[in-house]
Each structure stands twice: as C-alpha cells, then as structure tokens.
Amino acid sequence: MNGGTFRKDIEALRGVAVLMVLFFHFKIPGFAGGYAGVDIFLVISGFLITGIFLNNIEYGNNSLFDFYKRRFRRIAPAYYVVILATAILSSYFLFLEDFLKFRDSFIYAALFASNFLFSNESGYFDTSADFKPLLHTWSLAVEMQFYLSWPFILLFIRKFNEKIHIKAVLLVMSASFLASVLLTLNDPALAFYSVLTRYWEFMLGAYVSLAIRYRRIEAVGHSTADIALFVCSVCTLVAFPFFADGATPWPAPLAAIVCIPVAYIIYKGTPAGFIGCILINPLFSNIGRISYSVYLIHWPIFVFSSYYYYPNYSLLDSFSFLILSIFSGYFLYILVEQRFLSERFKGSKSTGALVAFPVSVSIVVALAFIVWPRNIDSMNLYDTGDVATISSIGDRLVSKKDVRNVVLWGDSHAVALNSKFRREFDKMNVNFASFMRDGCPPLLGVTVRSGNFSSEKSKCNDVRENFIRYIRDLGKVDSIVIAARWPFYYNSDRLSGEAGSSIKLFLEGQHFNFSENNHKEFYLSLLKTIEELKNHADKIVIIGSVPEFHFDPARCVAMSKRKSFSIEACHISYEFFEDRNKAVDMIINGITDRDESVFFIRVSDVVCNDDHCDPMIEGFMGYMDNNHIRGRLVGHVFDIFENIISINN
After folding, report:
1. Cα-flanking dihedrals φ and ψ of residue 331, to 5°?
2. pLDDT tens, residue by residue, 79-97
3. Same domain membership, residue 409 and residue 365
4. What is the β-pairing status of strands 446-449 and 504-507?
5. Which of 70, 110, 128, 212 has its CA 20 to 30 A from that of 552?
6. How far apart (Å, rounded) are the C-alpha atoms in residues 47 and 86?
C-alpha cells in the first residue's frame, strides 16, 4: 500500500477529482465547488511522490537525476503537445487583446511557472478567466514546484530516524496550513496559486505515505466503523461541489474538508464488495486512468468552444464539449502519454531528446509570438485615446484651500471615472482628489469582509481613514462624489453565473451577519455616510448603479461583427437592470428627495431606454468589462455632474 504500488482506489480518486473539475469548468449546475478536485490531486501526489522516492532510496537508487527524468517523461510529452496545439489554435480563435495575454501565459506555462503569472492577474473565479486557454496549467506548475523541492527535503531528513521524518512532515504541513489560512483571508489570489499555501495538501499525502511505511499498515479495514467512515469520506467528496462556490474562501481552512477524506481513503484502503464499488467502479476507474490527459485538454476545449459560441453557451454545449474532452483526453493518453512511457523511451538518449524537443519548440514559438506580426482580429471598439483601468489607484492627497475642491471616493467604479474627471478638472484649475480601492464601498460605519469568518479588508479601512482625514483637514469642500457597484453591496452577491467572491457588511459592534444580503447594513451605513459628508461638502453627488451585463459586452459586440449576428444579442433588458437595482435606487431617491444638497446621477439614463440597455454609445463601446464604464460614457457622466455642480460659475 505504499506510494510505489498501483492501487485501484487511488486511480478511482483521480477519476472523481477530474470529473469534479470538468463539471465545474463546464459550468454544470450544482458543481460550483468542483475546483476542489485539484486539491484531491495534490494529496494523491504528495502520497505517491513520497512513496516512490523513498522506495528508490531503499532499492539503492537515490539519484535525483533518475527521479526527475522519470517525472519529466511522465508529465512533459502530453503537456507540451497540448500547450503547443493551444498556441496554434489561439492564433485562430482569440482576439488580439486575449492573444497578447495568452503569449505571456504560454511563456510561463512552458517553464511550469504559470501560477506566478496568474496570481498577479484577475482571480481564478473571474469571468475573464474563461478566456485564458492555459489557466489550468497553474496546478501543474504547483505540482512541478513540489517535485523540485520535496525530494531534497526527503534526502536531508532521511539521515534521521523515523520519528524525525514524521515530525518534519507535520511541521512543514502545519506551517503551510497556517500560511494558507492567513493568506486566504488577506490575499486570496496568492493563497490560491502559491505552492507554499498548497504544500500542506502535499504533506498530508506525504504523512499518509510515511504512516503506512513505518507503521506497516497493510490490512484493509472491514469493521463497521471503517466502512462507515469510508462511505462518509466518499460522500463528502461527491457532495462537496454542491455546497461550495467561487465565494468560498479557498484553499485553507475549508480545503481540509476535502483533503482529510482523501487521506483517510488512501490510508485505510477501500473495503471489498459492494461498499467498495461506491468508489472503485468502471466510471471512476476508467476516467481516473486517463485523468491527466483529460485534465490537460479539457480547459482549452472549453475556452475555444465558449469563445466560438459566445455569449450564448448553452447547457447542451457544456455537456457536449465535456464529453468531447473525455474522448480527446483518451486519444491523448493513447497516442502521447502512454507512448512516451513505453520501454523504448527509457534510454538516456531518448530522454534527452524528449527534454530538448518540446523545450526548443516552445522557445521558438515564444520568440515567434514576440517578433512575428500577426493579422489577428482586435475587439477594440473604443474611441481613439480612450484609456481606462480598473486597477486600484493610490490616493491623491494634495490639499488646496484657495481653489475649488472636488473629492471622489469609491470602489473600482470610482476608478473607472477617475482619469476623465481628473483631466477635465485640471483644465478648469479645480483641485481634484480621489480615494479608491476595488471592493471597498464608500460607506461609513461598516466593515467589509468576504464572509463571517474572514478578516476585514485592511485596504478598505486604510482608504476610508485617508478620505476622512483629508476632508476634515480641508474643513469643507465644494463637492464630494461617491461611486460604487451599489447592488453588489446591497444584495451581497454578484450576478447569477458571475464568478468572484460575495461581500458582507458589518455594522459597528456587529460580529456576525448570517443574512443572505446586506439590506439593513447598507441602508443604515449609507444614511450615516451622507449625514457625515454633509458636514464637509456643499454638494454630495451619488453616481448611480452602472447597468450590469451577465457577459462581457465588448467581447459580445466584437463577436457579433466576426460572426455577423445581430448586435441586439449584446443588449440586456431594462427589466433585468431594474430587478437588480430598484431597491437601491429607491433608497438613494429617498435621500435626495429629503435633502437638496444631495444629487443622484443615474448612469442608466444614459445607457438604457424603456426597453433595453445598450453598451455602445455613439458608435463606441462604453464598457471595459461587464460592469465598469469607460470612454465616452464616462464623458457623459461628467457632463451631467458638471451641470449639477455648476463648476464654471
């Protein structure tokens, strides 16, 4: 039962893991937590690699070169075939903007370092992730980084006795788990992609491997308790995707809910008979056998198919291409993966060629991406000179008491307004200061968290304190503008099908918020915010909700031109907008009706008519993604704002 012995239950666990991932990635309803399949793979890898390497040492082969040669022969052929084929198809399918991003990801993926790149980009659960054909390589990069580090640690600790081995694994596992918990709360992207925050999952598998090896546990449990725990473990794995989603803090500590059952099954083995068939059955076993190839090929298939059918990717499409992924993975397994594991590829010359060929081709392709001009369609629908970003922007803290002062405070929706507002105010010799952070609403008297058991977003507290300090130092300014994705904070969630975390608001002294929404917290905090701001500004302007699209409108319009379908498919109904925003607009209208110093700019008045909302304005795209405006649309908002404050008088 050690890591060097073939086990049907581990093969079946691989099948469960890859099916979880496939159902999640192809957006099959009920599998929003299927990303946990990757965590199953990591525990299995920790178990197998530890056992394999220690077996090699026991048989007198402690050569790291031989170990890495076998690992590379196992992983590299199918991997490089897929990323090279993906590169070719990307030049055909992707718009130029996506292709340029793909070029960077290809270089990182070829070096098994894509997790570093993706941790600095938008999150794994963001909508834009659906258009990154090599996004799935992050987990293989993490595995490779584990392979490059763990054998060295094993070589070092093998000098000591068995108890030290166990303690060393537990120490590394505990340190990684603690780091994972802390980073999950404070830097979710880094926590998700980093090998350091995933190491505890490998170590859990390693611990099981050492426990079996040193305690000589070979017999499979057949007691009632063993069977009950086995059934509970399998049921936990199968049920977990139904109870988690993109808003679930991940990986730690909740990934333990998946990892511990996997470790238990590996540790105890699978009972014989009917009960064992819950796990070891033809479906899980056969899928598990080809799981690596299926995992490699499924994501590019999803990206290219969703690209082609965008924005109308149906459930039938999802199932069709999911099945295609399994069959494609089977052929990749037979034609590439198995062929390179055959006896004729075990010689040193064959291994050298195996290493040199894909690496050389990858370098050539990477250079071609850089220097070879391509005639790839652009989805650029923006006005000339229109520059926009939704990255966090630092605070501008220049105080000028002898001129007019306007202050902008908000989240990424304020960031979207910032550049245009600043340019216009500079022309008017108006001092303009901005305080903005993505995910940080311009509200007082609340803390912002992603859930009941996560920490407050420190960046939100910092920007709020800087804003308050600034306006208090000035005494009183001419106008304060607040802008945010209001329905997100009010409802606590994103649009249906939109990836990303939810948000929880907590009033002062409130430690838990188990409500499904933030209705009370939002209402009370907005009232408090307006009352406080009235002490520091002659006029307060609330920029209303930007009509949200459940798809990327720029990509949709560009695709309508490429495929010649009606641009009306890229509209949303006004009813859809109103359902999402009616309650928030009523709250804001109630405030403005009672106070003449508070004004409300409805962005929907520019974007929508009584029937639908159009992302295009005067022939140009007014959105940078599904809920942030840019270009001429921002200009229209500024014109309304300028009229309100009579800035030229």
Report:
1. -70, -35
2. 999 999 999 899 888 888 8
3. no
4. antiparallel
5. 110
6. 31
Task: Look at 186-190, 461-465, 600-604, 613-617 and tell me which has the smallest mean pLDDT.
Answer: 186-190
Tokens of 503: 């948000």
Looking at the structure, do residues 163 and 15 belong to the same domain, yes or no? yes
Which domain range does residue 634 map to?
A: 405-547+581-607+629-645
Domain check: are 310 and 419 in the same one? no
Residues 212, 338 within the same domain:
yes
Instruction: Verify cis geometry, omega within 30 degrees of 0, for the bond prior to 253.
Output: yes
Structure tokens at 363: 């370098």
Please tell me whether residues 493 and 364 are part of one structural domain: no
pLDDT 10s digits, 111-120:
999 999 999 8
Q: What pLDDT sits at residue 364?
A: 59
Is 539 in a helix, a strand, or coil? strand
Query: Helix, strand, coil proportions of the chain in percent (round to 5)?
Result: 60, 10, 30
Confidence of residue 457 (pLDDT cuts 50, 70, 90): low
Residues 223-279: tens digit of each pLDDT: 888 889 999 999 999 999 999 988 788 998 999 999 999 999 999 888 878 888 999
pLDDT at 217 > cutoff 70: no
Domain end marker among 321, 345, 371: 371
State the pLDDT confidence band at 26, using cuts at 50, 70 and 90.
very high
Would you state the pLDDT for residue 185?
Answer: 80
Say if CB 629 and CB 386 are below 8 A apart. no
- Same domain? For 365 and 415 the reply is no
Among 348, 371, 394, the domain boundary falls at: 371
**Number of domain units in the chain:** 2
Q: What is the CATH number of the domain that holds 531?
A: 3.40.50
Residues 366, 376: Cα–Cα separation, whole Å:
17
Same domain? For 341 and 427 the reply is no
- Could you give the percent of the chain with pLDDT greater than 90? 58
The string of DSSP codes covering 578-645 is HHHHHHHHHHHHHHHHH-TTEEEE-THHHHB-SSEE-SEETTEE-BSSSS-B-HHHHHHHHHHHHHHH
Give the list of residues 6+ apart from residue 87 with CB closer than 8 angstroms, or none.
Answer: 102, 106, 365, 369
In a domain, 566, yes or no: no
